[in-house]
């Protein structure tokens, strides 16, 4: 079992624990804002399960039907999580409207807030661990889960502060207002998550900083070639696909051109973990005099 899969399993366990604690905080207080916080954790449980399935599937090796592997499966998990966030936000807004029309006094706010704070602390610690492993393993599913947990932590801190204010002042309309703001916040985070995941499914190019590193590696290590053009890149989960045309002198032997390609591939793989490289060699008559000039 890979480290990424173990973290995905851990996310399911942590999400279920946090959900139970937040539901307990809501039951103790009757706060609609704490209910909204708990509903967001329902999404966390569903998303953690989806991420576990996606991480397991994406780790499967390439086969005849999927020659480029299964790494894009993780993007489907992230899109599903974004959709679940939208559903949760609608449910929260419905509850907030009901509480706004008929305000309810809080019960046992002190104990309820302590339970909610414990759940928030667990979420924060797990989010830090997920970010580390997600970046190390280049896992969109784990990173999506981590980003959502961070949004959840921020939301929870706001809810805890607001519910504490309700308990101190007795101003009941603050509670449904907080719930509505919570819904809008998770709608925003869900929309951003879907946008990023769709970008991966649509084969968006790598970010400018990484593209500059790729161009630099090609320029530095393709000595003997003339230029590289038609450079194309895309991410697929933890993999980065890089392809380009490498122009060499027309008199160069196949062995010499192949040696340049090997050198460039080794440099790119050392620079970028999970790089999959395709190089098309062309004679100098195919030069376009733009792209990457070989140093």
Automatic annotation (TrEMBL):
Predominant localisation class: membrane
Membrane topology, record value: Multi-pass membrane protein
What SUPFAM superfamilies does the entry give?
A: Cation efflux protein cytoplasmic domain-like (SSF160240), Cation efflux protein transmembrane domain-like (SSF161111)
Q: Which GO terms describe its cellular component?
A: plasma membrane
Q: Which GO terms describe its molecular function?
A: cadmium ion transmembrane transporter activity; ferrous iron transmembrane transporter activity; zinc efflux antiporter activity
Which keywords does this Swiss-Prot/TrEMBL entry list? Cell membrane, Membrane, Transmembrane, Transmembrane helix, Transport
The answer on whether this UniProt entry bears the keyword Phosphoprotein reads no
Q: Where in the cell is it found?
A: Cell membrane
Segments passing through the bilayer: 7-28, 34-55, 75-93, 113-132, 153-174
Biological process according to GO: intracellular zinc ion homeostasis
Q: Show the InterPro entries listed in the entry.
A: Cation_efflux (IPR002524), Cation_efflux_CTD (IPR027470), Cation_efflux_CTD_sf (IPR036837), Cation_efflux_TM (IPR058533), Cation_efflux_TMD_sf (IPR027469), CDF_Transporter (IPR050291)
In which domain of life is the source organism classified? Bacteria
Pfam families (alphabetical): Cation_efflux (PF01545), ZT_dimer (PF16916)
Give the Cation efflux protein transmembrane domain ranges. 11-202
Q: Where is the Cation efflux protein cytoplasmic domain?
A: 211-284
Q: Which family does it belong to?
A: Belongs to the cation diffusion facilitator (CDF) transporter (TC 2.A.4) family.
PANTHER family in the cross-refs: MITOCHONDRIAL METAL TRANSPORTER 1-RELATED
What name goes with this protein? Protein p34
């Amino acid at each position: 079992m890979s480290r990424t899969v173990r973290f995905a399993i851990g996310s399911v366990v942590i999400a279920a624990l946090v959900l139970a604690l937040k539901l307990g905080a809501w039951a103790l207080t009757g706060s609609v804002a704490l209910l909204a916080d708990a509903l967001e954790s329902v999404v966390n449980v569903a998303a953690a399960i989806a991420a576990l399935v996606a991480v397991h599937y994406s780790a499967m090796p390439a086969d005849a039907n999927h020659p480029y592997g299964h790494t894009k499966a993780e993007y489907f998990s992230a899109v599903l999580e974004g959709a679940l966030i939208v559903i949760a936000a609608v449910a929260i807004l419905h509850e907030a409207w009901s509480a706004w029309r008929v305000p309810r006094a809080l019960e046992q706010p002190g104990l309820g807030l302590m339970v909610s704070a414990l759940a928030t602390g667990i979420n924060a610690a797990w989010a830090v661990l997920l970010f580390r492993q997600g970046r190390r393993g280049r896992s969109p599913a784990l990173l999506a889960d981590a980003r959502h947990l961070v949004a959840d932590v921020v939301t929870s801190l706001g809810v805890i502060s607001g519910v504490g204010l309700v308990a101190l002042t007795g101003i009941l309309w603050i509670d449904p207002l907080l719930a509505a703001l919570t819904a809008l916040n998770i709608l925003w985070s869900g929309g951003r998550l879907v946008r990023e995941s769709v970008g991966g499914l649509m084969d968006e190019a790598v970010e400018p900083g990484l593209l500059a590193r790729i161009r630099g590696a090609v320029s530095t290590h393709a000595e003997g070639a003339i230029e590289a053009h038609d450079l194309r890149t895309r991410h697929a989960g933890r993999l980065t696909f890089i392809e380009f045309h490498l122009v060499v002198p027309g008199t160069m032997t196949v062995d010499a051109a192949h040696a340049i390609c090997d050198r460039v591939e080794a440099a790119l793989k050392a620079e970028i973990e999970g790089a999959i490289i395709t190089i098309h060699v062309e004679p100098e008559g195919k030069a376009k005099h733009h792209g990457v000039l070989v140093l």
